[in-house]
Give the backbone structure.
Amino acid sequence: MNRPYILCWIFLMLFGMHEMAAQSQPSVYDTTIIYHDGRVMRVRIEGTDTLIMATMPDVVIKAPPTFAHDEEYRQYMRYRRYAMEVLPYAIEAIKLYRQYEAETTGLNKRKSRQYAKTIQKEVKEEFTDPLKDLSRTQGKLLIKMIERHLNTPMYDVLRDIRGPMTATKWQAVGKLYGYDLKEGYTLGKDRIMDMILEDFQITIP
């Protein structure tokens, strides 16, 4: 256990004991612990008891999927394996897009594009190598995850961030690999894809 962590808990324990001695009824209050690495933890102190407070992610319970034949099952399992690999990139992309929306509200197009380029430079080194090694199916799953969550075709996302010329260029490149970035996610077009995206729902805002 590192020293800052120990000091935080010693302080909280002493403070709680002091409050217990001062009042006949135990006090209850919420506070925040900030670690040296930037992590933040909310805690509730009730008398001499300290409880960690956290928001648990939603849990979806549903019936197991059914398949028409063995090939459909194999395709599902293959898609599921791919989805587990690309899910972290989809989540990061959505977070960055939401960050872009928040930081560019009220800015003109030129300043918004400059901000987009700044984000691109920050993430380029981290994501270029793993993303360039994705297969076509993995790339399609990644795109559909993002489109489904944002309820927006990838073409429109690119046009919003980088402008129509860049969006048109990537639309042309995408078609070479079997992607139509203007199409968006359409429920019912690919049954196995629908099942996978339902399994891997992204719950971030």
Residues 3-53 form one domain. Residues 3-24 have pLDDT under 50 and may be disordered. Strands lie at 28-34, 40-46, 49-53.
